[in-house]
């Protein structure tokens, strides 16, 4: 090997030396090469005019074609390396007048394979490395949700050290990782290739309203994020716990503050059950107040309208609260509002809703407005159809799109508007409501693709008295109920997109078709 470098050799016989083999081995063992970098160190040259060092490296012994310049220090990190690649390196010193020493002895190191993990939910469904979603649904404020478990597996070729998590976003304190309240923490000091840890997640909302945080996993071997997913949940204040927390007696009909609003109405309108108040949602000057008794207003632009106004909890569907606006011309005969309520304002927990009065009631102009609230829960199929103004019962198909009224009700679509969309989610977000469909998914480590059915399902299906039975077939004649538990992939607060794994065989044949049987109780 020639002695000449970009500089002339040092006159001194001393040269920069890499650490002796024993110490270098200990260093590389403690600070192992990652997939993209390695930490190197060497003994210093004894001269007092050393300006720095040159680290030569390459993929062939004796052909060190890459150069890394270092100041007068005795360690450095080589970055931007290829994964699973053997490199050779040596170091020289140069002084303040530009002379360079001969190279030290050459050493070699091998970078690791790419650091990676795979994640599966509690049902064994693989989660995407980016953009996934773990949803906890509606949970009472101050309570703790059921645990959601993720299986985190080291899918790389080398051990991961200091596998840790971080939570980011405004609601980190509402979520639990490993049972702890912390925005970050260590999950495993070391995770060998193929080794799995169970990551328990929980949701304990501190306030009402939607909550979300971003969970990220990282390790020392790479600066890249190994896995991330959104954690979402909705903090609710359910009526019975609300009564207990306020020390109220008398149930729904109690009225401890004597202001004319019973406990159920105070709950529904977001007002204080222990402080009498005469505030309505229509404050002086036309300002809308998010908490108060129902009120009315006259709108003249773009046309004259008489409107009823009322406060409504944003999570009323999850709470099983039903709001029924009604109008009258004489305070004797009342008729339900037929116009769709419109949200005029909200403060994150409560919303002010306006609803247009009908033009006439029995030939007279409506002048009065009232609101009834009940806890009968969300509308069942007959009431829903009446609200939508469509006939034909469960088997009717007024829009002619192939989905009868029962399916439109179950899948959250509009029975009066024809559509050809299918249930879909993209990166953990509900992309469209629609008819059931199928998807082939490849789970990490699995030899074959999985056949899964995808369908929309109402989150409040129990309250609405409807049930869903996913079924598979190999020939469109014999159908078998799915044995796997459906997995929620996304939701929009009312409807969730669900996937379910097909059985491996039906009557000795591979399933190829999917359908959902829907039943509505009377």
What portion of residues is helical? under 10%
Number of E-type strands:
35
Give a short account of the largest sheet.
5 strands, antiparallel
Shape: elongated
What's the number of domains? 4
Instruction: List the uncertain runs.
Output: 1-31
Please state roughly what percent of the residues sit in beta strands, choosing from under 5%, 5-15%, 15-25%, 25-35%, 35-45% or over 45%.
Answer: 35-45%
Write the layout of secondary structure elements.
Elements: E1 8-9, E2 17-18, H1 21-30, E3 38-43, E4 50-58, E5 66-71, E6 75-78, E7 86-95, E8 99-100, E9 107-110, E10 117-120, E11 126-127, E12 132-140, E13 148-154, E14 160-168, E15 175-177, E16 184-191, E17 196-203, E18 209-219, E19 222-236, H2 239-245, H3 263-269, E20 295-299, E21 305-313, H4 316-319, E22 322-328, E23 334-336, E24 342-346, E25 350-356, E26 368-374, H5 381-388, H6 405-411, E27 424-426, E28 429-432, E29 437-441, E30 450-458, H7 461-464, E31 466-473, E32 479-481, E33 487-491, E34 495-501, E35 513-520
Parallel strand pairs: 1-8, 12-19
Antiparallel strand pairs: 2-3, 3-6, 4-5, 4-7, 7-9, 10-11, 10-13, 13-17, 14-16, 14-18, 15-17, 18-19, 20-21, 21-25, 22-23, 22-26, 24-25, 27-28, 29-30, 30-34, 31-32, 31-35, 33-34
Labels describing this entry:
522 residues, mainly beta, Immunoglobulin-like, five-stranded antiparallel β-sheet, five-stranded mixed β-sheet, 7 helices, 35 strands, 9% helix, disordered N terminus
């Amino acid at each position: 090997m020639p002695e000449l470098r970009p500089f002339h050799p040092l006159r001194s016989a001393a040269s920069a030396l890499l650490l002796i083999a024993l110490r270098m081995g200990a260093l590389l063992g403690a600070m192992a090469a990652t997939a993209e970098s390695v930490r190197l160190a060497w003994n210093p040259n004894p001269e007092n005019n050393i300006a720095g060092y040159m680290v030569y490296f390459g993929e062939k012994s004796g052909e060190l074609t890459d150069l890394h310049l270092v100041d007068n220090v005795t360690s450095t990190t080589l970055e931007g390396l290829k994964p699973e690649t053997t490199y050779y390196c040596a170091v020289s010193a140069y002084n303040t007048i530009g002379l360079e020493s001969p190279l030290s002895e050459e050493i070699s190191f091998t970078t690791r394979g790419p650091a990676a993990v795979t994640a599966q939910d509690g049902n064994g469904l693989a989660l995407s490395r980016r953009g996934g979603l773990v949803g906890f649904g509606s949970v009472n404020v101050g309570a703790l949700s059921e645990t959601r478990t993720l299986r985190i597996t080291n899918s790389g070729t080398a051990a991961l050290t200091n596998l840790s998590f971080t939570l980011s976003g405004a609601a980190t304190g509402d979520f639990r990782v490993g049972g702890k309240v912390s925005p970050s923490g260590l999950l495993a000091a070391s995770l060998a290739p193929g080794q799995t840890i169970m990551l328990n997640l929980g949701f304990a909302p501190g306030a009402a309203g939607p909550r979300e945080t971003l969970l990220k996993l990282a390790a020392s071997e790479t600066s890249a994020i190994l896995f991330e997913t959104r954690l979402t949940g909705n903090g609710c204040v359910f009526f019975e716990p609300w009564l207990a927390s306020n020390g109220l007696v008398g149930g729904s009909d109690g009225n401890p503050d004597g202001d004319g609003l019973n406990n159920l109405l105070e709950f529904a309108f977001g007002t204080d059950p222990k402080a009498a108040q005469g505030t309505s949602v229509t404050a002086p000057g036309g300002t809308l107040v998010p908490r108060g008794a129902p009120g009315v207003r006259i709108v003249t632009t773009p046309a004259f309208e008489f409107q009823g106004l009322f406060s409504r909890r944003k999570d009323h569907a999850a709470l099983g609260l039903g709001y029924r606006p009604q109008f009258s011309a004489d305070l004797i005969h009342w008729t339900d509002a037929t116009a769709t309520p419109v949200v005029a304002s909200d403060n994150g927990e409560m919303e002010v809703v306006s609803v247009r009065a009908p033009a006439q009631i029995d030939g007279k102009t409506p002048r009065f407005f009232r609101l009834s609230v009940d806890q009968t829960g969300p509308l069942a199929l007959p009431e829903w159809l009446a609200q939508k103004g469509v006939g034909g019962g469960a088997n009717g198909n007024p829009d002619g799109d192939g989905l009868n009224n029962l399916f439109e009700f179950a899948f959250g679509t509009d029975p009066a508007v024809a559509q050809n969309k299918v249930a879909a989610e993209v990166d953990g977000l509900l992309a469209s409501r629609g008819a059931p469909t199928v998807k082939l998914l490849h789970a990490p480590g699995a030899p074959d693709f999985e056949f899964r059915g995808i369908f929309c399902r109402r989150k409040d299906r129990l309250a609405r008295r409807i049930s869903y039975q996913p079924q598979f077939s190999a020939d469109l004649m014999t159908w078998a109920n799915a044995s796997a538990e459906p997995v929620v992939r996304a939701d929009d607060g009312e409807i969730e997109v669900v996937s379910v794994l097909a059985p491996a065989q039906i009557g000795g044949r591979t399933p190829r078709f999917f359908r959902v049987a829907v039943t509505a109780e009377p």
